[in-house]
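Below is a filled-in request sheet from our internal design queue. Each sheet records the structural input a requester submitted and the sequence that came back. We keep these sheets so that new team members can see what a complete request looks like end to end.

REQUESTER: design group, bay 2
PRIORITY: normal
MODE: inverse folding
CHAIN LENGTH: 128
BACKBONE (tokenized):
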């Protein structure tokens, strides 16, 4: 199964259903099931921003399963839509800047028992 490694707290925000787009500078044609891997690196500023949510932020493990259903270009219009949808999650992110890249639309998100495994760049495969 395909896997994507994401820094904390963003991996947990996805796993708990707060964040439904993952931002990248590259686009993907892949659609289908994907595992969410919480990498070993942390965005300290974002961790502080979301600490009031009292989520678990495990590191170095697969924590959720989802489906990539779309890959959209993040332009000014899409940035505005995301900020209207959830200003807490999307403000201060790639969706709230002059950054231009892609958002992978994630649906059917469900948490899984943590599977400790090293992450990789890009989309990678894991026997699940």
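RETURNED SEQUENCE:
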């Amino acid at each position: 199964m395909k896997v994507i490694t994401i820094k904390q707290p963003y991996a947990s925000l996805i796993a708990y259903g707060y964040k439904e787009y993952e931002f990248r500078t590259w686009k993907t044609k892949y659609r289908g099931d994907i595992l969410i891997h919480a990498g070993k690196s942390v965005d300290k500023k974002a961790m502080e921003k979301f600490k009031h949510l009292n989520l678990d932020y495990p590191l170095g493990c697969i924590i959720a399963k989802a489906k990539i259903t779309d890959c959209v270009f993040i332009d000014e219009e899409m940035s505005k839509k995301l900020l209207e949808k959830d200003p807490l999650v999307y403000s201060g992110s790639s969706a709230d800047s002059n950054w231009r890249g892609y958002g992978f639309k994630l649906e059917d998100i469900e948490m899984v028992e943590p599977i400790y495994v090293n992450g990789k760049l890009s989309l990678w495969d894991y026997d699940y």
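SHEET NOTES:
- The chain is about 20% helix and 45% strand.
- Residues 2-116 form a domain with the Archaeosine Trna-guanine Transglycosylase; Chain: A, domain 4 fold (CATH 2.30.130.30).
FILED BY: M.R.
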